[in-house]
């Protein structure tokens, strides 16, 4: 029986969107563009959780757990950087955050292939 990660992810996206919109309605979040940034960031967190689920139950032809984790980290970093930009943080800090995350992911992706060549 095939697992329905797509339906589960869609449901989580709807819950995340509803929670962020309720926070906006209660004036916890004051700007409408912050809503989209937070939805992206929180969905990135879900994507990282999904990577953990896929590690335990890998699909034969599906996206791998590592690839899912990288996508989650990038979504969270993008959403977080967007929130920082909205909150009038220095643009250099926002760009630096994205560059650090991309750099760490590049190093983490390169390490396994370097280990295989040494053996």
Short synopsis of the structure:
By secondary structure, the chain is mostly helical.
Q: How would you characterize the overall build of this protein?
A:
This protein has 119 residues and is mainly α. The model has no long low-confidence stretch (mean pLDDT 86). α1 runs antiparallel to α2. The protein has one domain. It starts with a helix and ends with a helix. The protein has four helices and no strands. The chain is flat. 81% of the residues lie in helices and 0% in strands.
Keywords:
119 residues, mainly alpha, 0% strand, flat
The number of helical elements comes to 4
Shape: flat
Q: Ends: how far apart?
A: 38 Å
Helix/strand order = HHHH
Task: Chart the SSEs and their pairings.
Layout: H1 5-25, H2 32-56, H3 65-86, H4 91-118
Helix pairs in contact: 1-2, 2-3, 3-4
